[in-house]
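Task: sequence design from structure.
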């Protein structure tokens, strides 16, 4: 037990240093903000978004606006965890950690391949440090970093076993909770979302989180 606690403390310290370095990252000159982080939450569950929107950098945390409100309602309804509990017990990551800016059409710009590559090293290191049991990618871009996702209907509601960087974990994808997309509100998306959240709620890693007191 003492050795396990020592190892965990070392990993927690490593995560704190990792997040500190992440917040100072300036690798992508086209990005319109500095990195957004949910903090060094040592957890066996990781939630991976796509990229922050324009408000997240100002508020200093991921999923801080309307999409986040929808996401946290899903967790409260199916997992019995409110926003405070989710943020305290789950490690938040993203495909890209900075706001990419707007496209010519006025929507949030999709990160470019070189920006995704630049940021993938942060994600790989987080997986190495945390050794997660469950990863929850949110949205098509995040899902596509782990498995093929041509259509949401083929992946939402399913659980996958994935290996990345020598670490094996379960993957349960979610659709993006953006209000701009009705996918999760109508059939078959609505039913598949419920199936996915049910799998997340029943996963052993989530059950362990529900029983754990936040630090």
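Answer:
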């Amino acid at each position: 037990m003492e050795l396990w606690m020592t190892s965990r403390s070392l990993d927690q310290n490593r995560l704190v240093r990792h997040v500190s370095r992440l917040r100072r990252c300036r690798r992508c000159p086209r990005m319109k903000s500095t990195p957004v982080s949910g903090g060094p939450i040592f957890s066996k569950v990781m939630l991976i978004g796509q990229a922050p929107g324009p408000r997240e950098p100002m508020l200093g945390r991921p999923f801080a606006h309307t999409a986040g409100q929808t996401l946290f309602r899903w967790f409260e309804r199916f997992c019995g965890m409110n926003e405070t509990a989710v943020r305290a017990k789950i490690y938040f990551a993203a495909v890209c950690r900075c706001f990419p800016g707007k496209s010519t059409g006025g929507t949030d710009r999709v990160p470019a391949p070189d920006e995704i590559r630049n940021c993938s090293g942060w994600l790989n290191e987080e997986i190495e440090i945390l050794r997660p049991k469950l990863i929850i990618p949110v949205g098509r871009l995040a899902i596509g970093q782990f498995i093929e996702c041509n259509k949401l209907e083929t992946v939402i509601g399913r659980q996958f076993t994935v290996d990345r960087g020598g670490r094996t974990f379960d993957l349960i994808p979610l659709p993006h909770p953006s209000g701009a997309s009705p996918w999760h509100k109508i059939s078959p998306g609505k039913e598949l979302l419920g199936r996915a959240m049910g799998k997340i709620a029943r996963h052993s890693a989530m059950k362990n989180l529900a029983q754990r007191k936040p630090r």
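Strands lie at 45-49, 91-94, 134-137, 160-164, 167-171.
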